[in-house]
Design a protein that fits this description.
binds zinc ion, alpha/beta, 285 residues, Rossmann fold, 9 strands
């Protein structure tokens, strides 16, 4: 607002007849303008007329109105963010059970989970440096749970993640025109993190190998991180049986840090616990 000189003040007072303060407003004697009863701030300002003489006194927001507007905007943004996260989860976690793969549901039995927490904590660096993970080890050692926890935690932080597997991808690519296939594979790189669960369970047909290579190669070129889980032995990944496997595994090994899942079979343990609990309930009955 400009300085209220005697000339300006005279203009304000001349216009005063047209000013109509609302119920929560009053005319401030000090400057002759409309103010807010609540915060006593100005709800009117003075602006010189463009290329003319005189002034006009447009309305403006007082501090408490501005605060209210900012709060409404923040609430609106928060709501949009939550809706976006919900949408991204529906898109990124296509299998319902993945919703339960969260840090909150971790029983704390597997020490390797610390690495999942660390990956999420250092996500910015991981993304910047294109650091992926290769989670390998026997069936039921918690690799998918580990990857699912990272996926959920990042999705909750508004990061686009897709957790999928090759059978689903191949299914999606079947009977589709080449250009749609290319578009679909490219769309996988829109996700900041791509998780491919259970590499190695798909059938090794020439077609499947070709599509797998295209997906992995496209990801490799996108310079965005990839997490792969597999029951394959690291030895086998490092010494692939043929060239078709080699060009897929080489790209994975180049970008994904191997993490070994060893020892306990958590799935069996879970099954044992369930059986034990069931037995207890039955014996009590
Ligand atoms: Zn106010």
């Amino acid at each position: 607002m400009i300085e209220i000189t005697a000339e300006v003040r005279a203009a304000i007072d001349r216009a005063a007849g047209d000013m109509e303060p609302a119920g929560d407003e009053y005319i401030e004697p000090a400057d002759g303008l409309i103010h807010c009863k609540k915060c006593r701030g100005s709800r009117q300002t003075v602006v010189p007329r463009f290329r003319g003489s005189g002034y006009f006194m447009p309305r403006c927001l007082c501090p408490c109105q501005q605060k209210g507007q900012e709060e409404r905007k923040a609430m609106e943004e928060q709501k949009e963010r939550m809706e976006r996260i919900k949408r991204r989860k529906a898109q990124g976690l296509q299998d319902r059970y993945l919703y339960d793969y969260t840090f909150a549901n971790d029983n704390g039995q597997n020490p390797v989970m610390e690495k999942a927490h660390a990956y999420v904590e250092h996500w910015k660096e991981a993304y910047r440096d294109n650091t992926g993970l290769l989670l390998f080890g026997d069936v039921g050692t918690g690799k998918s749970f580990f990857a699912g926890c990272i996926a959920n935690a990042l999705l909750d932080r508004d990061v686009p993640v897709l957790m999928t597997n090759f059978p689903s991808i191949l299914n999606r690519l079947t009977g589709v025109f080449a250009e749609d296939r290319a578009a679909f594979i490219a769309s996988l790189d829109d996700y900041s993190l791509l998780v491919i669960d259970d590499l190695g369970v798909e059938r090794n047909t020439e077609y499947a190998m070709e599509q797998m290579f295209t997906v992995i190669d496209s990801r490799y070129r996108s310079k965005k991180p990839l997490i792969v889980t597999t029951n394959l032995k690291l030895e086998k990944i490092k010494n692939p049986p043929d060239l078709a496997h080699a060009r897929i595994y080489d790209r994975i090994l180049e970008r994904c840090a191997p993490v070994l899942f060893s020892g306990k079979n958590f799935r069996e343990e879970g099954a044992r616990a369930t059986k034990a609990a069931a037995k207890e309930i039955v014996s009590k009955g």
